[in-house]
Fold each of these.
Amino acid sequence: MAVYTDVSDDELRAFMAAYDLGEVISCKGIAEGVENSNFLLRTERGTFILTLYEKRVAPADLPFFIALMEHLAREGIPCPTPVRARDGEALRQLCGRPAAIVTFLDGMWPRRIQPFHCAGVGGALARFHAAGASFGMTRPNDLSVAGWRRLFEACRARADEVKPGLAEELGAELERLERNWPSDLPRGVIHADLFPDNVFFRGEQVSGLIDFYFACTDFLAYDIAICLNAWCFEPDGAFNVTKARLLLGAYRAVRPLGAAELDALPLFARGSALRFLLTRLYDWLNQPEGALVRPKDPLEYLKKLRFHRDIAGPGAYGL
Amino acid sequence: MAVYTDVSDDELRAFMAAYDLGEVISCKGIAEGVENSNFLLRTERGTFILTLYEKRVAPADLPFFIALMEHLAREGIPCPTPVRARDGEALRQLCGRPAAIVTFLDGMWPRRIQPFHCAGVGGALARFHAAGASFGMTRPNDLSVAGWRRLFEACRARADEVKPGLAEELGAELERLERNWPSDLPRGVIHADLFPDNVFFRGEQVSGLIDFYFACTDFLAYDIAICLNAWCFEPDGAFNVTKARLLLGAYRAVRPLGAAELDALPLFARGSALRFLLTRLYDWLNQPEGALVRPKDPLEYLKKLRFHRDIAGPGAYGL
């Protein structure tokens, strides 16, 4: 749940004067997304999303994100397309924050994941990776293996408040991942946060991918591992191998995976689990006074981490 | 900011099967309203608002609210019109809560009130009162003078935590209001909560009135007094007599006010100020652990109460 900034009708009118979108018919804050303020904007020309970038998105990264969405849209990926103002600029200022208008995407994100959703996201991820191959910009992944030790150290002293023994377990895992992390697999633009609330469906078809504000340049197979964690575990913590098989099968039907990528999947899945565990743990231990967003449970990702640590190989994913 | 209940795509599909609204295209929680969960719903047939009634709305009152909106819409008041399902029922169940779909209204509510807004709301309130005259149902106002003592007693012991001397000042005011409250003025359906966030404008015209969930049967002039408090004070606490004159003038152009109603305005304005002061004070003193909604400042209404207490008569409103 978000909307951190309230946009007044006066400020909005002044902002919209730079665009060719006609009169504003309505503008309502959306209770989704936790990083930015999002508004559903209806004008005489159609329906759009207005985003104000709040402090967790670095302004220096915004040109990368905007250019990526423009590139993906040109390549036929169903994603929000930035709308340029009359002066050609898509990235502007509103209420003292960077702001952009993007096209509205039909569809709803799935609350209860069914197997067909996993096939849908697998195919969509592969098409996204393929489309990204011709994108010219790069952005390092601050939240990959090189960034985890800093996060871990920031949580280490208090990790056991959440679960006794957690600091030791995470420290050992981090060491293993740092030692074994590969360096020579296919790289490209990854979404890096393709959770169910970022994938819209109409019926059984993917109708949109959203929220590219963690996108960066990294191993493509690591992006798959993020999706295995986000889409293939049941609410009770059980790994659903049918969903994993569908996700991976749909991905490979679009973009084949090499043997080295397949072999790396369990390690990437452990790494991805540690990444979300650490950021959730940090947020859990550092809840701001009066916060309007409840932090997510970090221990959900400890269970996922242990699952991937204990399997024999990528065959456990139904391959 | 609201949305207390998350509606899954599966639950929504099952719910929508009772309606003739076509396929759901999207459904997004709106970060407005603090009493209910509201979703902006797009279907093949248009744009609607889906409301789930949360615990602060008594289910027994819902037929009154739904019938009122239907009545007002028939009378030409721009307000949400309940959409009936194929079986003729507008009030249904979703996620274990009462739920209804209403039509979407264009417009934005004004964040910075300008004089023309006050003229707009005055006229709209009078048309609402006139349209309500032919509405057959009644609902007592639990939050009028008879309900304030209970609220006051629930806050009395801790009121001075908010401001020293507050309990004594409110107790004396309450006694005066109880003693002097009139009994023989024109009554009818009042909105009872016509704050700026419940009035939409397109340009300088009112395009919609929303949120009828405090509507009840009471003195019509009391509803005007609520609007004087909600629309005619500046952010610095100053009373803007130009705004009051415009609000009252536009009201009287549609529905003339009798001398007794005019004379009662300052008392009603004091009462209305006490009503919002008390409910805000109660919410301030009883914030639930981990609440997602920040309570409003009760003392804003103490300043308003004192203004109306200290004026010589309704002439202070620019009459």
Amino acid sequence: MSKEHLKKTDRTNLVRNPSRADYDRDVVNGIIDATSLCHVSYIIDGRPYVTPTLQWREGDTIYWHGSSASRFLRQIVNKEVCISITHFDGIVLARSAFHHSINYRSVMLFGDAHKIEDGDKNQLLEDFVEALIPGRWETLRPMTDQEAKATTVFSMPIDEGSAKVRTGYPVDDDEDYSLPIWAGVLPISQTLHAPKADPKNLAGLEVPKHVRDYSLG
Amino acid sequence: MSKEHLKKTDRTNLVRNPSRADYDRDVVNGIIDATSLCHVSYIIDGRPYVTPTLQWREGDTIYWHGSSASRFLRQIVNKEVCISITHFDGIVLARSAFHHSINYRSVMLFGDAHKIEDGDKNQLLEDFVEALIPGRWETLRPMTDQEAKATTVFSMPIDEGSAKVRTGYPVDDDEDYSLPIWAGVLPISQTLHAPKADPKNLAGLEVPKHVRDYSLG
């Protein structure tokens, strides 16, 4: 059974003003589940790296994947990582430069990157495709053992970290509200466009329901 | 005068398949300039961190900012960082799970985080607002010295790093093109919505031209 809150630790306190951090697991999960993109940071030979990759969540665990041929992925097994997931929701236009901001939802997670063993990997790769686009797996040419081997899956417990969310209008200095300066928000969202069929599709193939029904977030 | 290409180094080779990396400065700059959001990773006390923040570029230098009150920002002065900027442009639906992918444009940059001294900061903060939304600075209540002091600006030369871009349709195994499986792309883009005026704006203020004219990317 899940704990309802993530742990506050020295690490989470270092990077977040604790008064603005949200440790509620439902808030954190909602931000994770609203996109596939994440940024994973790690240390190799004492130097920092950050790479974008695709993630998905099952319960209190986050998963991400990469190529087994990747030299750097081999070096992060059982090492500490920090994962960030961020949605850019708008530009906040205040009456002073200082109070300009953006609206966003972000999660930062800390933990060790565990490599999934081969026996457990096939089901997770199915879960990954289903997380990316529900309903697709059963329509596909089955995965081969070679393909499963070529993919590395990492997991990390969602245990230590926090969310931070900004919404709404600017917060200006009291005296600035009397100035004749237009303030407000430029909302931004990710938009899905009509599916583009591969020109190499067999003639007569219709867009399947799982593609027609797909929605972001 | 700018060099036309970024440096290939052990670091850039470690994280990118060199055959897929693009070191062309125009490609890198185009990806940086198409958003304000970046992820900066760094090491504190031997542990990895990654935080989302806003960046802007001037020539061959990338800048980002944070609160001077932030404990962690003080710890990255003159330290190595890695910066990632990523655009998620679509989901690539292949005929096999293995060849599923996303379309994206991403840049990874390496270097040391230099803290901008107070004397040089005011002009850069103006540049930052103008990069976020051109034409806005001159409409604002002037910045105070206290506000400039409360903001830390970092710079890093854009010198070591690379871009990686995926566009277009899936690339499937030759024999899979004969399967009756719908393949294609679900395009995704960031969309700007109509400006939302702060309800606390003075009566009669019109949406200014720099807000009406704003476009993403």
